């Protein structure tokens, strides 16, 4: 995925959009679009230097995003465990779904 | 009931979790469709959720609040984008003010849920959460995280109390 490559590359040092366009098999406009998305997301920073726009990866933001994704994953792990418990529970309130399942399910050995 | 895959995609500000459940999609769908079931898993045990409105149709709203150990209430809402029972659901997930009104100053995240039959009796569920910006992610995750951290702190307190006894 090109956006990932753009972030990886600009974390090692800043690059102009035209340099990036030369590195990737795509047009200047296409690279510019990816950079704009990444800039809006806060993952790269664009700075004007003379006539050029330099792009550099925002290492702090990226490590923060990793940390947040880990935290969110932990929240969902908890939720998925609880869903598993609900599904393991032969709850009579399952109502017609449960009755339906029971009707369909072959005799247990 | 296992999480089988966690994909972090920081460049897209997306988290994708994949889990397998020993139940067919119609039954797994119930945990989303039935508000009483949704309440049992959305919030952690220390911050149980109470679902107020629950309208699973495009444009519909789900509103809820989570009640903390001090009786503190945290309101949230979903705006339903699409529903394809029992195979999927997409919604916008945000926080609300103390009266339960969506807070326009707070960013939202997009959640896409997919349920697929895995053989006769299992379901693979995929949940994809996407954030508009890294800053929005910081705000949303840290707010949503309050209860998780508090729960963990509670467990630490309990452990400390045990070892002191």
Characterize the structure shown.
- Chain A is of the alpha+beta class.
- Chain A folds into 2 domains: 2-57, Winged helix-like DNA-binding domain superfamily/Winged helix DNA-binding domain (Arc Repressor Mutant, subunit A, Orthogonal Bundle), CATH 1.10.10; 61-104.
- Helix content of chain A is 65%, strand content 13%.
- Chain A contains 5 helices and 3 strands, in the order αβααββαα.
- Chain A has a 3-stranded antiparallel sheet.
- In chain A, a hairpin with a 2-residue loop joins β2 (44-49) and β3 (52-57).
- Chain A is elongated, with a radius of gyration of 25 Å.
- The termini of chain A are far apart.
- An 8-stranded antiparallel sheet of chain B has the order 1-2-8-7-6-5-4-3.
- In chain B, β3 (49-54) and β4 form a beta hairpin.
- Classes of the chains: A alpha+beta (109), B alpha+beta (165).
- The A-B interface holds A 1, 3-4, 7, 38, 40-43, 58, 61-62, 64-66, 68-88, 93-94, 97, 100-101 and B 1-3, 6, 8-13, 15, 17, 19, 21-24, 26-28, 30-31, 36-37, 40-42, 44, 125, 127, 129, 132-135, 137-138, 141-142, 144-145, 148.
